[in-house]
Amino acid sequence: MRVKDVMTKKVLNILPQASVGEALDAMVRSHLSGLPVIDETGSLVGIVSEGDFLRRGEIGTQKARPSWFADFFLPGKAAEAYARTHGRRVDEIMSVDVATIGENAGLEEAVALMEKRRIKRLPVMAGGKVVGIITRGDFVRTLSLLVRQPYEQELVSDAEIKRGIDGELRAQKWAPAASIGITVKDGIVSLHGVLTDERERNAIRVIAENVDGVIKVHDHMTWIGTYPGTALLSAEDEAKRRST
């Protein structure tokens, strides 16, 4: 999938000369955590987000006043900090180093850029103009659609399910495929066998859950420790043991 397939196409933006109050009103009204700043020519000149409002004089969260040393030897830095915490216009507080992405870029590229820059949104560009915006929420929305199994999905036989789980187990070098037993009845999977590392439990269960046709997974695997007599049942089997 590409960025243009999941991005939000209707982009709410704001002018650089707009007031801070107008930006805040727009963000609160639209339940947005950030706005691209676009000038009269349609060019992206910055972005304003929640982070730009964390340090403000009105709520007393601005950083402590710089020392006389900073005032004297780093006047530019001190002035910049003052403008950002007291600015009244968007162009006085916005971030100008804006990370963007092309509409034809892959989703992996978008995720990598968001993680690298530690940001929540990316303006999407085409022909030098903003044509959309992709946010973490867009990924969540798309994923929610993809993980749902349609009711009209064709039935998968128990034998096909077992082959699918077994095949994926053998494809993963970390998985103790030879020590795991798999039984399937009416789409319900039961996993048996011995684990040498407790961290394998969740991953093996995830493998089973992701095979088409699986309705439910029962974990009956046992972890055997390196010391004699140390063993750990699954949460399901431990609960059953305690109830008997």
Order of helices and strands: HHEEHHHEHEEHHEEHEEH
The oligomeric state of the chains shown is single chain
Shape: elongated
CATH superfamily of the largest domain: CBS-domain
What class, by secondary structure content?
A: alpha/beta
Number of domains: 2
Provide structural commentary.
The structure is a single chain. This protein is an alpha/beta fold. Strands 6-7-8-9 form a four-stranded mixed β-sheet. A three-stranded mixed β-sheet has the order 3-4-5. A two-stranded antiparallel sheet has the order 1-2. The chain is built from ten helices and nine strands. The two termini are 50 Å apart. The protein has two domains: 3-146, CBS-domain, CATH 3.10.580.10; 158-243, Histidine-containing Protein, Chain: A. The mean pLDDT is 87. Strand 1 (34-38) and strand 2 (44-49) form a beta hairpin.
List keywords for this structure.
single chain; 244 residues; alpha/beta; CBS-domain; Histidine-containing Protein, Chain: A; 2 domains; four-stranded mixed sheet; three-stranded mixed sheet; 9 strands; 38% helix; elongated
Write a brief caption for the model.
With about 240 residues, the protein is an alpha/beta fold. It has two domains: about 5-145, CBS-domain (Roll); about 160-244, Histidine-containing Protein, Chain: A (2-Layer Sandwich), CATH 3.30.1340. It has ten helices and nine strands.
